[in-house]
Design brief:
Ribosomal Protein S5, domain 2, elongated, 145 residues, five-stranded mixed beta sheet
């Protein structure tokens, strides 16, 4: 029994070599790990270019790294869920920006703050109102005569 306990103590996880941050937009939540070095950006275990296809999306998720001039120095992996693709994309951008701000507060925070990447976009879907016919601001149909 003593040998088993010793083996369990040895199996401790190594020190984390990443910076963690959470990004949010609408109902999307992105858990982002920012690693030092060169590597592929991953979203839900897929390349970011495959998960978010298109040049516009590529510019968006690379924007925090480009503004802080750390494109080759850092890469990220993100797990994102909820909302649609656009909400997930902006949640990943928010998470990457927050992780970069944690890495070096003095240099990166002011740059990312000016670009508006650190502020959480608080706009959410408006909840529906009862008795109006379904939508939040929809008016009830009036009779013709």
């Amino acid at each position: 029994m003593e040998e088993v306990k010793e083996q369990q103590k040895v199996k401790r996880s190594p020190k984390k070599n990443f910076t963690f941050a959470v990004g949010r937009r609408k109902t999307a939540t992105a858990r982002v790990r920012l690693y030092r070095g060169a590597g592929d950006n991953l979203v839900n275990n897929q390349p970011a270019s495959a998960y978010f296809p298109g040049m516009v999306a590529a510019k968006m998720y690379e924007k925090p790294l480009e503004l802080s001039q750390t494109t080759g120095k850092y890469y990220f992996s993100a797990y994102v869920e909820g909302s649609g693709k656009k909400g997930q994309l902006t949640a990943v951008v928010h998470g990457v920006a927050r992780a970069l701000a944690r890495v070096d507060t003095v240099n990166y925070r002011s740059i990312l703050k000016k670009a508006g990447l650190l502020t959480r976009d608080s706009r959410m879907k408006e909840s529906r109102t009862v008795g109006t016919g379904g939508k939040a601001r929809r008016q009830k149909q009036s009779p013709k005569r």
